[in-house]
Amino acid sequence: MSDDLVVTTPERVSFDYQLAGPGSRFLAQLIDFPLQVVALAASVLLGLGVGALTGNGLLAEVLGVIFGFLTIWGYYPVIETLWGGQTLGKHIFGLRVVGDRGEPINWVQALLRNLVRLVDFMPGLYGIGLVVLFLNGRGKRLGDLAAGTVVVREKGGVSLTRLVALSELGEQRHQGVAPGGAELSPQERTAVRQLDPELRAFLEAYAVRRPRLEEWRRAQLAQRAAPALGRLLPDLTAASGPQAALDRLADLVAADAG
Predict the structure, then answer these.
(1) What local confidence, expressed as pLDDT, does residue 173 receive?
(2) What is the pLDDT of residue 15?
(3) Structural domain boundaries in the chain
(4) 12 vs 54 pLDDT, higher one
(5) Beta pairing partners, 7
(6) Beta bridge partners of 17
(7) How are beta strands 14-19 and 4-8 bridged, if at all?
(8) Neighbours of 222 (CB within 10 A)
(9) The pTM is what?
(10) What mean pLDDT do residues 204-223 have?
């Protein structure tokens, strides 16, 4: 099973998520399952209490069954929908359910992946779910396959250094100056404005997201764009490589956008 889920945006910038392994998902279940049992007991007692207040034993049993059913089947869908793909267990272990494109899940996905949980659990202790998870190689049990979701590990928060970098980039774009203080020459500005729309969108997205990208990811993107970079900045690409050319073009596009 691959450890990463790679998502490519419409601007052709790639981001990766680390897939959650069965171990961390099981540990999250060890927290969520007791909570579900407590919620189930509370809901059944609530139903019985309402029935007892009315003096109707049949009503008490019916309400207990109804509230218990809603708790069993509603616990995960409701919490994952309201908490952006997390439950308490997932939150503690840094896990989150997202869509196949890395987008937040909606209530339909949350409901569908948890309705299929009953099949995943068979014949016990998520037997089918674990087999499917390992066989498909994408960290998905049947519920995830049906709902178009995947469980990923969340990365750490944004550091102060990255926030400062983003702030500086925004200020430089506002002033129309390429990061590093270099002003655009008329020739450079003309060249940037004549860029292919798709390549320009890629460069704009890269310029904004560059402080959040790891170095190896930036190098990977530069290699993918190397042919275009070589045509646009042949001297710089030949002398310093595609990474330098990509960073220079991103600086120029960022300054021109200001």
Answers:
(1) 46
(2) 60
(3) 4-153, 160-257
(4) 54
(5) 15
(6) 5
(7) antiparallel
(8) 19
(9) 0.59
(10) 78
